[in-house]
Design goal:
The complex is a heterodimer of chains A (390) and B (179). Chain A has 390 residues and is an alpha/beta fold. Helix content of chain A is 36%, strand content 18%. Chain A has 15 helices and eleven strands. In chain A, strands 3-2-4-7-1-8-11-10-9 form a nine-stranded mixed beta sheet. Chain A has a two-stranded antiparallel ribbon with strand order 5-6. The chains are: A alpha/beta (390), B alpha+beta (179).
Chain lengths: 390, 179
């Protein structure tokens, strides 16, 4: 893949994660964007283009939501684009920001991701209904949890994984989230496997403590060319690789036990980054964890272990913050919250802070030079991957 | 967050903030109506369901019999060419036990969504539907349903069929089916 410019991340911002924010979506965008610019030491007029990631309009009941949010994201009188690939949007926004700069078109790009899910009453789950096939799936009363539960059970069956092992992901991430200053009230915590498996059965094998919450928040990141990075910072974090990949929307026609599309996205990013052995070369990972099993599923798709091996690494403590391959040191969606697009960009920001050594209580024990953030979305079918390095 | 950032913006609201009028809200109730044409492939599929038959579609490129049927093969990117009647029997590929309705409200009696691979379709060609006749409690259902279990469609009476996926009420364990 050819490109003009190396791209660096030079600042990131994040609002607190909340069940229901007083701020409007525009106001959340403004806060996150301002923080990211402050962190980078840049002014709004330095920004040449703005990228927005946010979920379907129907969540907010605001049509053309990208345009609605533009002013809050600093998109006024600037080249402005919204990208949307469902849950994969937050990480895809960083990819979108990357190619704006890598193309040579822009030197300084502001990436903003926003989600305000609480406006949809009584629950945004009902708004989700519009994503399923209107002929074959909606008449059966489908909801999002069904599909995750079907995939989780398939994964458990194929590899003979007990529900208790998968619950360890929730225990780890919810504990990690205790150290995140932006974590949503009541979401992080110190839970035992028994409490997690014994919490309300929503759609077996998914229990309440194995699923991430509804959240309002925004995240932002500043991405610049090498020329600008050298001028404004001594600690640039480079975008080493990006990858994205889409599978068929006929999700019942493929084996759900393994996310092949994540593998292809990862291979694309590794090729670009010159990574030939991700298990040795990746030091810290923010894998997408809207449901507990998803973190394991994605570690396998990211080629960080063999198929079916992720539960064993988890069980041995390898993926703890002090382990050899820390996964979701931020606390992830299970421990911090899940404002869909903003959650994905929060993961990229966490890798940025980890590589800068600025993550404070969340800083992983091992030295880190290369980190990876990944998200997943659309209709069980998209993988988005960003590899950062110093 | 970075150790260099000390102020995290955002004001979380509680229900009482709205109840007490500390924060004002504006409501919008949307009522949107749609009528979708079922298209070439699903029209035949739904007419088939009315007659108690399930149709798949064959692609000469990859030799797959596809259910749900489509007029083009997304692998070979060419038209599919032939209708194939598949069985109303199959096996459970995966299942779950749902206490949550489509709008996130809860139901006391669980439903059992499943992916069922139909006999006569190519391997791995599942459709999403429900299982029935497998118990009313989580314990009963988990004791009864296994991945790989043979199942058979339980149809609505012919007079009540509408040419919809719900013409199949659910899939039930197939008596005498080999485990």
């Amino acid at each position: 893949m050819g490109y003009q410019n190396r791209v660096a991340v030079v600042g990131a911002g994040l609002t607190r994660f909340m069940r229901r924010a007083q701020e409007t979506g525009k106001e959340l965008c403004f806060e996150a964007a301002r923080m990211a610019l402050d962190a980078a030491g840049l002014r709004p007029r330095d920004v040449e283009a703005v990228v927005m990631a946010t979920a379907p309009d129907v969540f907010d009941g605001v049509h053309m939501k990208g345009e609605y949010l533009a002013d809050g994201a600093g998109g006024f009188r600037k080249p402005y684009m919204r990208s949307f690939v469902g849950g994969g949007s937050g990480v895809f926004a960083a990819i979108h920001g990357w190619y704006h700069v890598a193309s040579g078109h822009f030197d300084t790009v502001l990436v903003v991701a926003e989600e305000k899910m609480s406006s949809c009453l009584p629950h945004p789950q009902a708004a989700f209904n519009g994503i399923y096939d209107q002929f074959l799936e909606r008449p059966l009363g489908v909801n999002l949890l069904w599909i995750f539960a079907l995939e989780m059970n398939r994964y458990m069956q194929v590899h003979k994984i007990p529900q208790e092992t998968i619950a360890l992901v929730s225990a780890k991430n919810k504990k990690n989230g205790l150290d995140h200053p932006c974590a949503q009230d009541g979401i992080p915590g110190d839970y035992t496997v028994e409490e997690i498996v014994g919490s309300e059965v929503m759609v077996w094998p998914v229990t309440r403590l194995m699923v991430s919450p509804v959240t309002d928040a925004a995240a932002a990141m500043v991405m610049v060319s090498e020329r600008v990075a050298k001028r404004i910072t001594d600690k640039p974090v480079w975008v080493k690789g990006v990858g994205w990949h889409l599978d068929s929307s006929y999700w019942t026609n493929r084996d759900l036990y393994y996310p092949k599309y994540v593998e292809y996205a990862a291979r694309m990013a590794y090729d670009m980054a010159g990574i030939t052995d991700p298990r040795r070369e990746i030091d810290v990972v923010e894998a997408y964890d809207p449901f507990a099993y998803k973190e394991l599923h994605h570690m396998e798709g990211l080629l960080l272990c063999d198929k079916g091996e992720a539960p064993r690494l988890l069980d041995k403590g390898v993926t703890q913050r002090n382990g050899e391959l820390p996964v979701c040191p931020s606390g992830g969606l299970l421990g911090v919250g899940n404002p869909i697009a903003a959650a994905g960009l929060m993961k990229v920001a966490e890798i940025f802070w980890q590589l800068r050594g600025e993550a404070g209580a969340r800083q992983v024990s091992r030295p880190v030079r290369t980190g990876l953030a990944q998200a997943w979305g659309d209709l069980m079918q998209v993988g988005t991957v960003v590899v950062l390095g110093v | 967050m970075s150790v260099h950032i000390h102020d995290y913006p955002g004001v979380p609201l509680k229900d009482r903030d709205i109840g007490d009028g500390r924060v004002l809200t504006t409501e919008w109730h949307v009522k949107a109506q749609y009528a979708w044409d079922t298209g070439a492939a699903l029209s035949k599929f739904f007419r088939g369901l009315k007659e108690g038959k399930i149709y798949g579609r064959w692609c000469p490129g990859c030799d797959r019999v596809m259910v749900p049927p489509r007029m083009f093969c997304e692998w070979c990117f060419r038209p599919t060419v032939r209708w194939v009647e598949v069985g109303d029997t199959g096996r459970v590929n995966t299942f779950s036990v749902s206490y949550v309705n489509w709008d996130a409200s809860r139901s006391a009696v669980p439903r059992v969504p499943a992916v069922v691979e139909l006999d006569g379709a190519s391997p791995g060609m599942g459709i999403m539907h429900l299982l029935g006749g497998v118990g009313d409690t989580l314990e009963e259902i988990l004791g009864r349903v296994k991945v790989g279990m043979p199942v058979q469609a339980v149809w609505k009476p012919p007079a009540e069929r509408q040419g919809a996926i719900t013409d199949i009420l659910y899939f039930a364990p197939r008596p005498g089916g080999e485990e």
